[in-house]
Amino acid sequence: QKEDIEVTLLPAGHCPGSVMFLFEGENGTVLYTGDFRLAKGEAARMGLLHSGTRVKDIQSVYLDTTFCDPRFYQIPSREECLSGILELVRSWTSLTRYHVVWLNCKAAYGYEYLFVNLSEELGIKVHINKLDMFRNMPDILYHVTTDRHTQIHACRHPRDDDCFRWNRLPCGMTCQNGTPLHIISIKPSTMWFGEKIK
């Protein structure tokens, strides 16, 4: 049988351009989330999930369940994580200009919220390998740089952990103007909260 279906793309908040799919047809409404990251109350502000003053009647939800596990019940909010990272980065980078932070980001996308907020709060751009992926995103592009002489790095290397172990950033920097760098590593990963229960 043929059926007309209306498909609506909703922002998923996972990384720039990520979407959830809302399928609506004669046989009902289905929401497919894929990877998503929504704060409390954010879905309530999505007009396309509502019909008048009510939430649409959704019969089925295909949900990304990566963190639907008792080990992950205590994941702090994005705001709490940002606050902790900001405090650590601010205190470290204010010691000297040779105190730098490496954000050990395992994926290419999904950290933009962190980059933008660190840059805005501290006035320090984040070093990344290439600007290509953010070329059409001026709001993000303003906060990242390919200049290695910054105090916050999110550069990547195939053997990131080896680079850090020898006090070397993945981009190869070990010193600036002949002065050795003092590097701390921050691993912004939700998986960490499941691995480190205590």
From TrEMBL:
<dbReference type="GO" id="GO:0006303">
    <property type="term" value="P:double-strand break repair via nonhomologous end joining"/>
</dbReference>
<keyword id="KW-0233">DNA recombination</keyword>
<dbReference type="Pfam" id="PF07522">
    <property type="entry name" value="DRMBL"/>
</dbReference>
<dbReference type="GO" id="GO:0006310">
    <property type="term" value="P:DNA recombination"/>
</dbReference>
<dbReference type="GO" id="GO:0005634">
    <property type="term" value="C:nucleus"/>
</dbReference>
<keyword id="KW-0234">DNA repair</keyword>
<keyword id="KW-0540">Nuclease</keyword>
<keyword id="KW-0378">Hydrolase</keyword>
<dbReference type="GO" id="GO:0003684">
    <property type="term" value="F:damaged DNA binding"/>
</dbReference>
<keyword id="KW-0227">DNA damage</keyword>
<dbReference type="InterPro" id="IPR011084">
    <property type="entry name" value="DRMBL"/>
</dbReference>
<feature type="domain" description="DNA repair metallo-beta-lactamase">
    <location>
        <begin position="139"/>
        <end position="193"/>
    </location>
</feature>
<dbReference type="InterPro" id="IPR036866">
    <property type="entry name" value="RibonucZ/Hydroxyglut_hydro"/>
</dbReference>
<keyword id="KW-0539">Nucleus</keyword>
<keyword id="KW-0269">Exonuclease</keyword>
<comment type="similarity">
    <text>Belongs to the DNA repair metallo-beta-lactamase (DRMBL) family.</text>
</comment>
<dbReference type="GO" id="GO:0036297">
    <property type="term" value="P:interstrand cross-link repair"/>
</dbReference>
<keyword id="KW-0255">Endonuclease</keyword>
<dbReference type="GO" id="GO:0035312">
    <property type="term" value="F:5'-3' DNA exonuclease activity"/>
</dbReference>
<dbReference type="GO" id="GO:0000723">
    <property type="term" value="P:telomere maintenance"/>
</dbReference>
<dbReference type="GO" id="GO:0004519">
    <property type="term" value="F:endonuclease activity"/>
</dbReference>
<protein>
    <recommendedName>
        <fullName>Protein artemis</fullName>
    </recommendedName>
</protein>
